[in-house]
Amino acid sequence: MKNLKRYRNLSGFIVVLIIMLSEKVQAQQDPGFTQYMYNTMSVNPAYAGSKKHTVINILARSQWAGIDGAPETQTLSYDTSLKYSGVGIGFNVTNDKIGPAQKTSIDANVSYSLQVTDASFLALGLKLGGRLFNVDWSKGIYKNPDRVFDTNVDNEFSPTVGLGAFFYNNKFYIGASIPNVLKTNNYSASKENVALEKEHMFLIAGYVFDINRDLKFKPALLFKAVMNAPSSLDVSANFLYLDKFRGSVSYRWNDAISALIGFQVTDNLNVGYAYDLTTSNYGVYNTGTHEFMLRYEIFSKGPEISPRFF
Questions:
Q1: pLDDT for 225-276, tens place per residue?
Q2: What gap in Å lies between CA 285 and CA 115, rounded to an integer?
Q3: Where is the signal peptide (predicted)?
Q4: Could you give phi then psi for residue 176, rounded to 5 degrees?
Q5: Which residue in 241, 236, 232, 183 sits closest to 212, CA to CA?
Q6: Are 222 and 237 in contact (CB under 8 A)?
Q7: Can you tell me the distance from the alpha carbon of 297 to that of 266, in angstroms, rounded to the nearest whole number?
Q8: How many angstroms separate the CA atoms of 211 and 249, rounded?
Q9: Which of 88, 116, 174, 233 has its CA at 20 to 30 Å from residue 21's CA atom?
Q10: Are 70 and 94 spatial neighbours (Cβ–Cβ below 8 Å)?
Q11: Which residues are within 8 A (CB) of 269 and not within 5 positions of it... i.e. 6 or more apart?
C-alpha cells in the first residue's frame, strides 16, 4: 500500500508538472488522435464534405493508462456536402481533460471545392467556433503555495478561427491548415496566466496503392508544429483488405508506436481501435493509450462501389 500511494502521488505530480511547464516546453495543446486519418476535419476544415456524403464520427481517447489525471478526449463530428454546389459543412464537439483542467470546443466548418481536373479537387476551408476552459484545483492531490493553484478557472471563453486547404483525388491527398489563428491567454480568477495557447500548424498527406484487386496500401503522414516548440511527425502504413478490414502501424517521432485495426461492420458502420505504446520517458509511468472510433456514413444513392481509403 505504501508503494501504491507513492506511485499515485508520483503519477499526479507528473501530470501537474506537465501542466505547469506547458508554457515553457510548449507541449502540444490541441488534442491529437492516432486515428487522425479517419477524423481529418478535426485538424483541417477544408476536409468537410470531401467524402460527398454524410459522415458521423465518434472518437474516444484515453491516454497514458495508469496515471491519475492523464488526458482523456472525446469528440463528435458531422460533415456532409451540399449536393452539387461544391460546398461542404461540418461540426465538431470536443471534450478534452487533463488533471484538473477541462476544455470544451464547439466548431462549425465550411469548405468550398474547386474542380482542378476531371478527378482532382482543391478545397478551401474556414472554421469558426469557441472554447470553454475550466480548471478545478480541488480535483486531485495538488498542493502548492503558489496562488495560481488556489483560484479556479470557470468557463473562460475564447473564440476560434481556423483556415485550411485540401487537395485530393481518389488516390492521393495533401492538406495544410491552422485550426486556430488566434492566440489565447487563459486566466484564473486572480488574473494569473494559467495557460497560453499558440497557433498549431498541420500538414497531412497520403497516397493509396492498389497492391491487387483485394488489397490497398496507404502510407500517410501528419506533421504538426507549434510556434517556438518542438515539431511532431506521425507516419503510418495502412492496409485495407476486401474494402472491409483495416490494419495499420504508425510511429510518432520520439513519442509512441501504434497499432490500428478496423472493420466495416455494415455498408454504413465502421469501427476502429488503436493502441499506443509510449516510447518517451513517460512510458515508465503508464501502460499505453487506448482509442476507440465509430463512423457512420449515410449515402444519398446507396453505398459506394469502392470506398475511398481516406
A1: 987 777 889 999 999 999 999 999 999 988 899 999 999 999 999 999 999 9
A2: 50
A3: 1-27
A4: -135, 145
A5: 241
A6: no
A7: 10
A8: 17
A9: 233
A10: no
A11: 294, 295, 296
* 3-state secondary structure string across the chain: CHHHHHHHHHHHHHHHHHHHHHHHHCCCCCCCCCCHHHCHHHCCHHHCCCCCCEEEEEEEEECCCCCCCCCEEEEEEEEEECCCCCEEEEEEEEEEEECCEEEEEEEEEEEEEEECCCCCEEEEEEEEEEEEEEECCCCCCCCCCCHHHHCCEEEEEEEEEEEEEEEECCCEEEEEEECCCCCEEEECCCCCEEEEECCEEEEEEEECEECCCCEEEEEEEEEEEECCCCCEEEEEEEEEECCCEEEEEEEECCCEEEEEEEEECCCCEEEEEEEEEECCHHHHHCCCEEEEEEEEEECECECCCCCCCC
Q: Quick: pLDDT tens for 92-116.
A: 999 999 888 889 999 999 999 999 9
Residues in the chain: 310
pTM of this prediction? 0.82
C-alpha cell, 228: 517556438
Specify the amino acid at residue 12.
G
Q: What is the dihedral of CA 113, 111, 165, 305, to 10 degrees?
A: -60
Grid cell 475550466 in the structure block, residue: 134
Question: Residue 240, class by beta-carbon neighbours within 10 Å (0-12 exposed, 13-18 middle, 19+ buried)?
Answer: buried
